[in-house]
Amino acid sequence: MPASYKQQVDTGFLAMDTVTAVFQKMRAGQGQLKVDIVQDGEVVKSQNTTAEYGVVTVNWVPGE
């Protein structure tokens, strides 16, 4: 995967649904893995890791 990668997923209408994103670094070495959940152009939840093979899990509930 490139050093910088963006993936956008349209979730449609969310009332009380939970959005969960889970990503893992697949290569050893330095660098940051950052995951943002964005609504209407604004970051509503964000998590990151710099650990080798680190995992990022982000959960968001609309209205939270």
Description:
The structure is a single chain. The protein is mainly β and 64 residues long. It has a domain at 25-59. 0% of the residues lie in helices and 42% in strands. The chain has strands at 19-24, 33-39, 42-49, 55-60. The strands form 2 sheets. A two-stranded antiparallel ribbon has the order 1-4. A hairpin with a 2-residue loop joins strand 2 (33-39) and strand 3 (42-49). It is elongated and about 40 Å long. It starts with 18 loop residues before the first strand and ends with a strand.
Strand content: 35-45%
Q: What is the subunit arrangement here?
A: single chain
Please identify the structural class as seen in this structure: mainly beta
Count all strands and give the number: 4
Overall geometry comes to elongated
Task: Evaluate the radius of gyration.
Answer: 13 Å
Q: Strand order across the biggest sheet?
A: 1-4
Q: Main beta sheet: strand number and arrangement?
A: 2 strands, antiparallel
Alpha plus pi helix count: 0
- Termini distance? 32 Å
Core attributes:
single chain; 64 residues; mainly beta; two-stranded antiparallel ribbon; two-stranded antiparallel sheet; 4 strands; 42% strand; elongated
Brief summary of the model shown:
It is built from no helices and four strands. It has strands spanning 19-24, 33-39, 42-49, 55-60.
